[in-house]
Structures are given as C-alpha cells and as structure tokens.
Amino acid sequence: MHKFSSCDGCQLAFLNLGESLLQLSEQVEILHFLEAGMSEADAQVDIAFVEGSLSTPDELERIQQVRKNSRFLVSIGACATSGGLQALRNLDGQHDEWRDAIYARPEFIETLQEVRPIASVVDVDLELWGCPVSSAQVVAAVRSLLFGVAPVDDRDRVCLECKRQQAVCVMVTEGKPCMGPVTRTGCGALCPRFGRDCYGCYGPAETAQSDTLARRFAGLGLMPDAIARRFLLINSQAPAFLQTGRVFWHSGQEAEDD
Ligand code: SF4
Ligand code: SF4
C-alpha cells in the first residue's frame, strides 16, 4: 500500500475492514503499509495499491518504481483516480498564487505546477473510485485478483442504486441539485438514502451526461459558479466532470468581472 498526496482516508478503508482484514492477511502477505506499521517500500509485489495524487517531483519518480515492482497496480480513491481536492489548483494555473498564500515559507515547497492522477503517468490495471473507497470494493477487488478473475468495474449511476434501495429522489421531491445521474455508484446511494443530494464523490458514471445535468441545475436556480463547484469539487480531473465544470467556472468568472 503506497501513499502519495492524500489524507490517508482510503488506507483507513483497509484498516476498517476489521475481521475481514484478519482473513485477508491469511491469504496475502502484506509487505508495505505504513499506516499498519509495515515498511518495505521497494519490495516486488503481486498487487500494489496506490492512494493519493502525484503532486511533487519526488512522487513522479516514486510511482515509476512502484510500477516496476508490481504485477498489478490498483489506484484507490478520488486523489489517485482524478486528482482529489488538491487538483483544484490546476484551474487557471493558480499553483504559484495558492502556494504563496498558504505557506509561510513557499521557497521551501517543491510541488508540480499541476496535480496528476496516477493513470496519467503510469499504466494502471484497476481504478477503485470514491472519497474514500468503500471497504466492500477493496475486498471484492483483492478477492478477484487473488483468484485470477477480472474485477467488476461498476459504472452504474447512483440513480439506479437509489431505485434498487427504494430511496425517495431528493431532486424530484425537494429540488436538491443531486449529482447522482452522472455519478458512479459503489456507495449504495448513501447520501440520498439519508435525504441528502449526492455530491459526486465516486466520480463519473459511464456515459455521464454532465452538460444536461448542469442545465437542470441552472433550472433549479443554481448560479454558474455553484454549478461549476458541483462538478469540480473532488474529482475535478475526470474529463466528464472537468469539461462541464470549466465551462460554468469561466462563465461565472466573466459574470463577476462584468
Ligand atoms: S436522489 Fe439523486 S441519485 Fe437518487 S434518483 Fe434522485 S437524482 Fe438520482
Ligand atoms: S451518494 Fe454520492 S456523494 Fe454520497 S457517498 Fe455516494 S457517490 Fe459519494
């Protein structure tokens, strides 16, 4: 388990497995997992899980080494698959402004101008989306890989899961700007089941109609910058969200300038 720029939340999805983690440790030998106390970063492995985005020159080098040492490389979570929150600095090339505003001594900070998802730099065998990933997804992926079966890549929309769970639609009944129609499931429609609108933390579903949903949000009364924030929050580097988010972000900026 390799950590790059991230909050460690997806590693906790492993640790939260509880009893399943004990069963898993009978099937595999865990060599490198700093949160759990194992440190063997350069070991040759069958499966490497990678959490976090590539945000520093050092990380760009380290991911190449991880790729060389691993038979399967699985990126886990929003940071690894689509940049995460830190990729917001990619918008309009704001790297230097943000670095200088945040750090007291910016001259000591070595970061890339743009945050990059793992698959933009090395080949990735499987991506597990989510912020954080769910423990069930992780177990299913490990089980498939151990038995030599191609893991299922669930790209259904959250809306479909809502129907399966018989959750009441918060967009239809309450006019909330729900991202469920364009977001892949994996969470079991967690937010709508508790009366909240989905904010897209599992990234784009297959053939996500982001522009259509953005127009629906405008119909609900959201201003362009609010629509942009729905698409650019956590998975901003996923193309299906980025293109729509950028258009509304720029039209919001132009409206402010006027
Ligand atoms: S609540 Fe959201 S995810 Fe559920 S059906 Fe309505 S729009 Fe789709
Ligand atoms: S409903 Fe949406 S925001 Fe909530 S956990 Fe699922 S994908 Fe994430």
UniProtKB/TrEMBL annotation:
Residues 7-144 form the NADH:ubiquinone oxidoreductase-like 20kDa subunit domain. The keyword Phosphoprotein does not apply. InterPro entries: Hydrogenase_assoc-protein, NADH_UbQ_OxRdtase-like_20kDa, NiFe_Hase_small_N_sf. It comes from the Bacteria. Keywords: 3Fe-4S, Iron, Iron-sulfur, Metal-binding, Oxidoreductase. Its cofactor is [3Fe-4S] cluster. The keyword Iron applies. This is Coenzyme F420-reducing hydrogenase, gamma subunit.
